[in-house]
Amino acid sequence: MKTKAALLIQTGQPLEVHEIETPELNPGQVLVEVAFSGACGTQLMEVAGDKGEDKWVPHCLGHEGTGTVLETGSAVTKVKVGDQVVMSWIKGEGQEAGGAKYDWDGKTVNSGGVTTFQKHAVVSENRLTLLPEGMAMDVAVLLGCAAPTGMGAVFNVLDVSAGDSVAVFGTGGIGLNAIMAAAMAGATPVIGVDLRESRRELALAFGATHTVNPEDCDVAEQIKAISTGGVDLAVEATGVPGVMVDAVQITKQQGGRAVVIGNAKHDAEVKFSPSIFNSGRSLMGTWGGDSKPDRDYAKYAKLIAASPYPVRDLLSKPYSLDQINEALDDLRTGKIGRPLIDMSL
């Protein structure tokens, strides 16, 4: 069958929307009719070429979405035809079937184990999780990346406790989920750091007790003043190497912990003094907030449902697939927190 997809033909150039032919399913693959897709900074980096040489162009993009199962390949047991599912780059249980190869007028279009900037997608079984009961398919897009990465960093990696002081650098989609998780866990103060006023306002709406504009002050001094000498926990969600250093330096001596979520450009380097470690601070990394989809996604859905914060406001107005470049531009400039691409438009 033919479907419509946004393709990366050349890095540094806008995506192009074309009709492509879906392949026959291999064992462990699932054909999904995509309902909604999100997008994050990873796609911006891929399009710009910031992840280094792209040997797979032309290829499909997008790694977070929701949809309905239309067909299953052999050996698939996790989902069945008609199931509504969350599509995520984070691997869960089930078959690892690899990527699919689509046909575009005689040319091969590559894809990974999950792609979502398209009307229909061939997805590896282990990138699918059943849609949590009662959760709307548009909001559930957050379960594909932003929620498990941001919430998971706070719950799974930093192991937040009530009363912990927390700073979050970068209050986009992932950072806002980290702020919300910290606030719901009873952390205080919760400090959101971002250059953009609109995102600092969102941080306050999502549970931050304070916000800091790096252009207006010395960030370290301001955070240490708010938290009485430094925070217990810090989340870095900008991908800027210097901010990664700042995140660990503003934690408390003898027990302060920071986690890096943000993706830096492929040739970036982080430089800091070893005295950070001699002072008893810890700097950690994470892969998707150390979340396990089949264990955690239902839990995150319940937290989102019970949240006193305006979770739906994190998502933009709906864009059509034909508006994909507009959606990515709005994400890049900080006009929106998380784009929502509605495949029915």
Describe the model.
This protein has 345 residues and is an alpha/beta fold. The protein folds into two domains: 2-131 and 310-342, Quinone Oxidoreductase, Chain A, domain 1, CATH 3.90.180.10; 146-287, 3-Layer(aba) Sandwich (Rossmann fold). It is built from nine helices and 18 strands. The protein has helices spanning 41-48, 146-157, 173-184, 197-205, 219-227, 241-249, 275-278, 293-306, 324-332, and strands at 2-8, 16-21, 29-37, 59-60, 64-72, 84-88, 101-104, 107-110, 120-124, 128-130, 166-169, 190-193, 210-212, 233-236, 257-260, 282-285, 315-319, 338-342. The strands form four sheets. Strands 3, 5, 6, 9, 10, 17 and 18 form a seven-stranded mixed beta sheet that branches. A six-stranded parallel beta sheet has the order 13-12-11-14-15-16, with helices on both faces. The longest helix has 14 residues, at 293-306.
Domains counted in the coordinates: how many? Answer: 2
Beta-strand percentage?
Answer: 25-35%
The CA-CA distance between the termini, in Å, is: 20 Å
- What is the name of the CATH architecture of the largest domain? Alpha-Beta Complex
Gyration radius, rounded: 20 Å
Give a short account of the largest sheet. Answer: 7 strands, mixed
Secondary-structure class? alpha/beta
For CATH, the homologous superfamily of the largest domain is named as Medium-chain alcohol dehydrogenases, catalytic domain
Number of helices: 9
Give the fraction of residues assigned to helices: 10-25%
User: Which ranges are low-confidence, i.e. pLDDT below 50, for 5 or more consecutive residues?
Assistant: none
